[in-house]
Each structure stands twice: as C-alpha cells, then as structure tokens.
C-alpha cells in the first residue's frame, strides 16, 4: 500500500464509520445530557481548559511526542490547557451529532469547532442561533485575516467565524495512465477516461468546476445554470464515464491507478505528489473551487477563552508553524514571511500560498444554492443513485 | 429470598426483567420516536411538526422503489451465495474437522476481530482495477481489457456475501455438530446411499441452522449501506444509502424515518412468509 494517510483520506474513511455509528445515534439522541452552565458573554476571565474540535491531521504535530507544539505554547502563555479533539470527519455527520443537544439549548462541551463554508452548515448554525459571537476585543490579530476572506456572504463581518485553513478544488490526474487532463469537458467527455473518473460528493465541491466549464458563475447560481450543470453531470453518470462520487477516498485509487483523473483537493495532492511523481493537480483553466474551514464557537462555549486562542492562532509566527505541517492555504497575513524563515520550500509552494492568478480563477459556491431545498434533494439523489 | 419463595411464579418475570427493560428503553422507545418522526412535515430550517403526514410513506415508496427492489435483490443473492459457501464449510468442519474443529471455527470468526469497515475496505483493494483478481480475469478473457469489478453490482454482492458469511456458517455448523452420527449409520445400514442419507437425514436435521443463518444474513444485508458505498457506484446504491444520506446529509428526518419503517415492514412480511413456508419449528429445532 502506497497510500499516504492524508487528512481527508482519514476523514473520509472515518466518515463512513462515523456515519455507521451515528445513524442509531441520531435515533437515540432523545435522551438528555446535562447542560453545562455557560460562562459566555462579556466575562473576561480565562477558563481552565479550552475544548477544541478539529479535523484529523489539521494542526502541527511533533511526530516523536505526538504532542501539538503550538498548543503547548498556548498553554505556557495563558495557563489554559487545551483539550484538542480530532472528532470532525465530515461536515454533515458532525452537524448531525451536535444538532440534537444544540436544538435543545444544551452545551456540546466544545469551545471551538471547525466547519467548511462549501457546506450549508456554518450559515445554518448562525441562522439557528447555535453559535456565539466572537469577542473581537480579545482578537487584535483579526487584522491579519487576508482581505479575500473578510466578508463572506453568510457572515458579512466575520462576527461569528474566523477561517482556519482554505483549500482549492481542481483536477488531479495520473500521467502514467493518461495525457494531462486539464479541463472539465475533457474529464467528462473523453472516451479514453470512461469509468476511470470520479467527482466529489459534496455539492459545494463539484458544482463550481462544472459551472465554470458551462460558462456560468458558481458564486451566483440561477435555476438555469443549476439545471445546465446537473444535466451535464447526469449525462456523464449515465454514460458510465463517472465511476463514483467520492470524499477523499479518491486518493488511494488515484495513486494505485484505478482512476486516471478526478476532482481533488489541493492540500491532499501536496502530500500525494511527494510520494508519487506521476500524480499532478491543476486548477482547470475555466476555473475551480475554493473553500474555507471556519472556527466557530458553539452556544455554551467559553467565548473569551476561544477568542484568546483565535488571536493566538492569528499570530503570523504561530500560523506559520501550523502551516508548515498542514499544507493547506493559510488565511493569516504575514505567515508566508515567517514560514520563509522556517521552511522556504513550503513557503514557495503555490498550492499552499497560491498566486493571485490562481485565486482569481477560483470561486466558492453561492451559499444560497447550498440552502436551496430543490438543489439539495436533486444533488443527493444524483450522488446516491 | 423468602419473598421469592412465597411468589415462586414471579421468578421467570424477574429473570426476564433486565432484558425486557433493555429492549423497552433501547428498542421500543426509539421506535416510537421514529414512528412519530415519520409522520412529521416541515423542513430543517423552520423545524418539523407532527401532522399525520402519511405522504412521507407514499413518497418513500414512489421515489425509491428502485432502491428497495435493488436492496432485496442484492440481499437475496448474497444470502444464497453465503449458503452455498457456508454449508460445505460447516459440514466439513463438523464431520471432518476432528481435533482442528475449534481452530477452524476460529478462522471463520477471525474476520470479526477486524472492524466491518476495514474488512470492506480490504475488498476495495482486492478487487481494484490494477489488483491481482482483475488482472487474472482479464488475462483469461473473462473481463474485457477495460473491464472492472469495483463500482459494479458484482463487487457489492461479493462484499455483502463475505461480510455476512459467518452469520450463515455458524448456525449451520451448530445444527450439524449436534446431530447424532448414529442416524446416518442407521440410514446407511438400511441401504441408503451416501447421497440419499445426506438428503433424507442430514439436510433435514440441519434445516434449523439453515433457516437461522438465512435470516441472520438476509435481514441485516437488506439494510446495509457500507458495501454499496465503498464497493459500488451510485447506480448500485441500496435503500440503506438513501436512508443514511436523508438522515445525515439532508437532515430530512421524516423521510428517512418513513423509509426505515417501509424497509422494516417489507422485511417483516418476507420473514413471515418465509417462516410460514418452512415452518417455524425449523427455527427452534
């Protein structure tokens, strides 16, 4: 097995098992759990412990001690212990897990959780009033947030959320098995690739690339552009061109050669390429997707302590230390400069610090589309047969 | 103690109490919630409300008939295959296993030491396009040069068969193992051929195991979604995949609950017909 255990590889596999466990979990979620008295609001004392839920392999790790050096630094600086829990494997599954207690006004015993903005969940959490406002007075480093991420349409002023990492969605291919696959039409219609192609199962992951290929703007989805995109994907599914819709489980088959090309995330490919020089990743010429994982404070979490941590993570030096391990796109201004001092190779990788041309060519999906019932149902019926 | 002496007829109920309590809390109560949920309408944003929405059931059947049929098809084929593989296996261990019996049984159970998910992922590797199985099948011309097994119905059924094989093999083994060997001797003394002795004596006596095994395989297989998700393509997805995605991705709880009830009802009906056909005494021996 040459598989590299990437963050999303792990999360995808775990997602399947997680889902397996949570179906009965959802049914049984009727029993109550004790609600913690929240110390939220304007209380400016630090909690003893910060409970931080994140995705696997998404923060710096010292391979020998298995500790997270930046978290230890945080503890040393503030006296707050960090309980760091890698229990978010998939946006939908995690949301399924926390929505029960949150809807009953109970705490989920977390101060920070991380969710992706190409799913409907961050905006849903805000709309439902299940997340706390950040204490911006405790986050002077807020100014280090890159301008492009300052005003998402689901949280205009970043009152509730702060980016953790971003990533690009593009096309990966294996040059041993195929000529370079650089465009979506090639991926969907080239008979040489029949049955050797996968798309991503998240609507927000796949749709931007398809819509760009159709000449439509994924950031402004209309019924007409939606229907055009669906028609195009359906045609490729019916013809047998598309083999599956995947989470990150594309990485194994791609490395082994079961797939010739697929939609893939930039950060994974940084790690895959390191082990297999036949794998390549590009943003399609017509345009690709960009998404951001966001830190949020669920209701009942300690707002002040969580905000102090966010401020700490937005220190360019700390952000550089995290980035050096994570290899996704860093949202913190000044981190690149710091990283040049620590690890120039990473600092100069355009998948980690993309060029402006790349960023101009990538869009996230319209958040209104993510919440459109008809789209959600049609999409789900497409990917689950 | 004296209480129990005076009310001796209460003893069975007291012994049953923990089990009944457990079933009551963890099966009947959630089932009630599920039923309640299946009759709600609304959506996740504004919330769901109970409205006797029987339409959910109609939508489930009308919209996903294909998935239901596919699920029962796959489960039935996998059950038959598991029976064909398990019977000779169990027979051989019961009658020819000798002092290796326990070790051989351990081999049957061994895969269970690894989680379900990992076992299924292993099949993803075994059946991979560039893997040994596909390569051999291509070389001998059974598969075309671009043929594959992964992401086909074959892979899904193979995965289900493998994953539920022990549920079939163990009950059959138990019923064969308990058989009185002298009955076969007697049959042969009465001039039955080996084959005839098998058909007239061994097979009927092992039927309780076969019935238990088929039920233990078919029922969970029909609701399975892991195999279809990992080994199939969207065109092979089963009703379990739809329920899973309705619950967790779409948070459309009423629709998912209604589908779960339809699935349960159809399985109950099938099991009832099956039990009628073979006779329930076969299950209890």
Based on Cα principal axes, name the global outline of chain A: globular
CATH class call of chain B? Mainly Alpha
Residues in helix, % of chain A: 40-55%
User: What is the largest interface, and how many residues per chain?
Assistant: A-B, 42 and 43 residues
| Secondary-structure class of chain A | alpha/beta
Instruction: Give the uncertain stretches of chain A in residue-range form.
Output: 1-41
Counting structural domains of chain B, the number is: 1
The count of DSSP E runs of length 2 or more, i.e. the number of strands of chain A, is 11
Q: How are the strands ordered across the major sheet of chain B?
A: 1-2
- The third-level CATH topology of chain B is MetI-like fold
Structural class of chain B: mainly alpha
Profile the largest sheet of chain A.
Answer: 9 strands, mixed
Structural account:
The complex is a heterodimer of chains A (385) and B (285). Chain A has two domains: 7-165 and 292-333, Periplasmic binding protein-like II (D-Maltodextrin-Binding Protein, domain 2, 3-Layer(aba) Sandwich); 167-289 and 366-383, 3-Layer(aba) Sandwich (D-Maltodextrin-Binding Protein, domain 2). Helices cover 40% and strands 16% of the residues of chain A. Chain A is built from 16 helices and eleven strands. Chain A has helices spanning 7-28, 69-78, 91-103, 121-127, 184-189, 203-213, 223-238, 251-256, 266-275, 303-313, 316-326, 335-342, 344-347, 356-360, 367-370, 373-383; strands at 49-53, 81-85, 113-116, 131-132, 161-174, 197-200, 242-246, 261-265, 279-282, 288-298, 362-363. In chain A, strands 3, 4, 5, 6, 7, 8, 9, 10 and 11 form a nine-stranded mixed sheet that branches. Chain A has a two-stranded parallel ribbon with strand order 1-2. Chain B has 285 residues and is mostly helical. Chain B has one domain (64-284): Orthogonal Bundle (MetI-like fold), CATH 1.10.3720. Chain B is built from 13 helices and two strands; from the N terminus they run H-H-E-E-H-H-H-H-H-H-H-H-H-H-H. Chain B has helices spanning 2-6, 11-38, 55-96, 101-109, 116-126, 132-139, 153-177, 181-189, 194-222, 226-231, 239-248, 253-278, 281-284, and strands spanning 40-43, 47-50. Chain B has a two-stranded antiparallel ribbon with strand order 1-2. In chain B, helix 8 runs antiparallel to helix 9 and helix 11 runs antiparallel to helix 12. The relative contact order of chain B is 0.13. Chain A binds chain B through residues 1, 13, 16-17, 19-20, 22-24, 26-28, 30, 92-93, 95-96, 99, 124, 127, 194-196, 237, 243-245, 249, 252-253, 256-258, 371, 373, 376-377, 380, 382-385, and chain B through 26, 29-30, 33-34, 43-45, 67, 115-117, 121, 124-125, 128-130, 146, 148, 150-151, 226, 229-230, 233-237, 241-253.
